[in-house]
TrEMBL record:
InterPro entries: Ig-like_fold, PapD-like_sf, Pili_assmbl_chaperone_N
Listed Pfam families: PapD_N
Protein name: Fimbria/pilus periplasmic chaperone
Gene3D superfamilies: Immunoglobulins
Signal sequence, renumbered to the chain: none
Pili assembly chaperone N-terminal domain sequence ranges: 15-125
Lineage: Bacteria, Pseudomonadati, Pseudomonadota, Gammaproteobacteria, Cellvibrionales
Amino acid sequence: MSLDKIIVYLHDLPNSREDIVVSNPDQETLYLQTEIYRVENAGLPNEERIRVVNPDEFKLLISPSRAVIPAGAEKRFRLMSLDRDLEKEQVYRVTFKPVVGELKSEKNALKILVAYQVLIFVQPQDGDYQLSLERQGAQLSLANRGNINVEVVEMEYCRAQECRPMTTRGRIYAEARLLIEDEWADDLSGGVLRLRARGREMETIEIPL
């Protein structure tokens, strides 16, 4: 199977929804079910993924929750958020999980199934990320003091009109940090860190050192 997107952004507003299209390019019928996980303390050492099974705890709805997709066909799944007035974004993961159909073989048969997981962010209307540099001893890190996540897709150190690319990349969740692991990061002094950062949109950020 294939999904048309694996990251979804929703707002904490009524009727906030997004569709995911699942295609079945195989020659066999695809039997599919979904599982919803709420991510607590995203990006922190005590991150926890909690399977949502109690109907009273469902703040993210997916319809249909299971489907049969014929060979060569596709199915649209709708995600809708019930979260309201959030102070910080809520993170979910939804697993699209194939289920074994009937195996027709005169010999022992092995069927390999691959599940996909979609990352979902439900964000407050006034959500914003706030990146700053923090130094702890010899370690330098980017901290996000905002209330939504941001993905650093490119980073370089610039000083005196010369820029040096850095290898550090990654998503920084609200209240989490990203360790700058370039070997020569301890020697950074003066100049700026120039970042290409992706929230809902891409932008360039410069952080003085």
